[in-house]
């Protein structure tokens, strides 16, 4: 009797232990492909980085080829330091092209060799420059010494602000430089090609500019005038301000818009300045709390909201393309997790799920304000000859793709129109603007699209606290499918899929992996599927798909018919 009682108790304890797993109700997600919300414009297909000389180096070329291949449309690329003086040797947060020097008589000498090697790399891959006019050549700087900085991770950020950040001592020489650069680009690549680019002046003038606000407007006017004289149909914009929703950021953006709308043009004396696109920055703010990284997307989204609202204050600008010139979880790409522990999110699936969740909100903000949201530049590329998985904000390490790049591969499979998609566990937009995603439960979010004979549904299980967690059941109810059957494929980024970082750690985190290990890591860095594609029957335009989604995972359900 006692033995029977013990067995009964043991069975009861086992039942109590496993009951939550059986009793857990799936999170319900509903997608209606027949209800359009807006265009699935490829706002994600924009990338940028500080170090332009990485562009034509081994791993730089490899990564650019992969980025170009993942997108069905041309990708735009933005880089700093395209006019800086130097021999082209890269360093962290530095680059140079030696495009402008002067001879012994002070006459300009133009040398486009390095600039051409950068833009050639883009154009050969079908990519488009978001060409940054900056920074100040040494021979033109009003305060050239010291010129190249020696900043390294852990140093104060202000150390990078040296002679390249000053106004020109001769605006005529500056405008001639810009004119000749654009003219040379048209001669080299053709008018039609250069017409498809965007030009922009400087970067973050509220931090990277050692002149006054009015001096910056003068620089912009002379630059824009030079661009338009060389190619009247060229597109130019500004001002890529930092901290858009902060006091100084807002002041700069609003003053710039007012100057372009009604100010006196320093170059022409006319009213207003050419403005073909408005650019501003948006950054989040992660912290380390009791050894765990906690993300915060609210500042990043509020920056975007402020940028949208500022432009709408000017009716003549309301239809202009809006580009978030840098849109990231925080500010410093070259600050690794060794010196900045709060950046430890960058190697794993936190970065990928954060990217999915924030881009969904960028589209939602654009819908709310009715703006022409063209793109958001992910300031994340690669760093040559650096330690493996050092925690830089990059898409690949030593030629091996990191999980975050696979989110962009997923986005590359979404096109056509965004369609109505709802999840009972998706945080409301206003709540995320106010307090990010810090709640008791993770977010099960959704973004969906339909184009022609295919559709895609992106799902993520995200929380600001960078912790792993067991898979949760999700029931995806799809309707509005114009076919009797579909081919179903699920792509996945999680602890076990599309994740070179976890594979590298299981190898023992080698800093000098063998050729065989590198081959394994390269394969692990690609986008993986959950099993093989299979056929599903569709009843009355609908189908139900169960998904088990771990914490910080991203799935893409792809339907073809």
Automatic annotation (TrEMBL):
Keywords: Glycosidase, Hydrolase, Signal. Residues 1-23 form the signal peptide. The active site is at 204 (proton donor). Residues 28-524 form the Glycosyl hydrolases family 39 N-terminal catalytic domain. The keyword Secreted does not apply. It holds the Pfam family Glyco_hydro_39. GO terms for molecular function: hydrolase activity, hydrolyzing O-glycosyl compounds. One of its GO terms (biological process) is carbohydrate metabolic process. It comes from the Bacteria. Belongs to the glycosyl hydrolase 39 family. This is Glycoside hydrolase family 39. It comes from Dyadobacter fermentans (strain ATCC 700827 / DSM 18053 / CIP 107007 / KCTC 52180 / NS114).
């Amino acid at each position: 009797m006692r033995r029977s009682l013990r067995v009964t108790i043991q069975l009861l304890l086992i039942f109590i232990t496993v009951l939550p797993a059986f009793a857990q109700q799936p999170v319900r997600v509903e997608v209606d492909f027949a209800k359009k919300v807006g265009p699935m414009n490829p706002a994600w297909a924009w990338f940028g980085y500080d170090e332009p000389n990485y562009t034509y180096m081994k791993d730089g070329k490899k990564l650019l080829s992969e980025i170009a291949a993942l997108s069905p449309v041309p990708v735009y690329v933005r880089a700093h330091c395209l006019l800086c003086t130097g021999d082209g040797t890269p360093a962290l947060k530095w680059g140079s092209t030696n495009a402008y020097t002067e001879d012994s008589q002070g006459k300009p000498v133009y040398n486009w060799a390095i600039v051409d090697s950068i833009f050639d790399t883009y154009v050969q891959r079908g990519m488009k420059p978001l060409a940054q006019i900056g920074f100040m050549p040494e021979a033109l700087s009003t305060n050239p010494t010291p010129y190249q900085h020696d900043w390294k991770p852990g140093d104060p950020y202000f150390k990078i602000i040296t002679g390249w950040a000053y106004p020109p001592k001769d605006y005529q020489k500056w405008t001639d430089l810009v004119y000749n650069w654009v003219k040379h680009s048209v001669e080299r690549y053709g008018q039609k090609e250069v017409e498809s680019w965007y030009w922009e002046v400087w970067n973050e003038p509220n931090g990277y500019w050692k002149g006054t606000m009015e001096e910056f407007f003068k620089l912009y006017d002379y630059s824009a005038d030079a661009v338009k004289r060389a190619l009247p149909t060229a597109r130019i914009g500004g001002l890529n301000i930092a901290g858009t929703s902060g006091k100084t950021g807002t002041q700069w953006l609003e003053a710039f818009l007012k100057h372009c709308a009604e100010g006196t043009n320093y170059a022409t004396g006319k009213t207003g300045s050419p403005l073909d696109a408005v650019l501003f920055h948006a950054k989040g703010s992660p912290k380390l709390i009791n050894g765990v990284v906690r993300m915060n997307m609210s500042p990043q989204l509020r920056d975007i909201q402020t940028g949208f609202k500022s432009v709408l204050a000017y009716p003549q600008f309301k239809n202009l393309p809006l580009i978030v010139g840098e849109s990231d979880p925080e500010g410093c790409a070259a600050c690794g997790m060794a010196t900045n522990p709060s950046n430890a999110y960058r190697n794993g699936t936190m970065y990928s799920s954060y990217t999915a969740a924030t881009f969904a909100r960028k589209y939602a903000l654009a819908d709310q304000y009715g703006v022409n949201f063209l793109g958001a530049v992910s300031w994340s590329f690669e760093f040559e000859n650096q330690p493996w998985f050092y925690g830089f904000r990059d898409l690949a390490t030593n030629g091996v793709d990191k999980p975050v790049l696979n989110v962009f591969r997923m986005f590359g499979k979404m096109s056509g129109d965004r369609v109505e998609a709802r999840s009972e566990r998706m945080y409301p937009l206003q709540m995320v603007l106010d307090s990010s995603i810090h709640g008791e439960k993770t977010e099960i979010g959704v973004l969906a699209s339909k184009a022609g004979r295919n559709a895609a549904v992106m799902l993520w299980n995200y929380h600001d606290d960078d912790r792993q967690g067991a898979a949760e059941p999700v029931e995806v109810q799809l309707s509005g499918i114009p076919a009797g059957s579909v081919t179903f494929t699920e792509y996945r980024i999680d602890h076990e899929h599309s994740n070179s970082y976890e594979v590298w750690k299981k190898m023992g985190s080698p800093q000098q992996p063998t050729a065989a290990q590198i081959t394994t890591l390269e394969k692990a860095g690609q986008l993986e599927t959950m099993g093989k594609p299979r056929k599903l029957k569709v009843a009355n335009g609908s189908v139900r798909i169960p998904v088990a989604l771990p914490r910080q995972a991203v799935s893409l359900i792809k339907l073809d018919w």
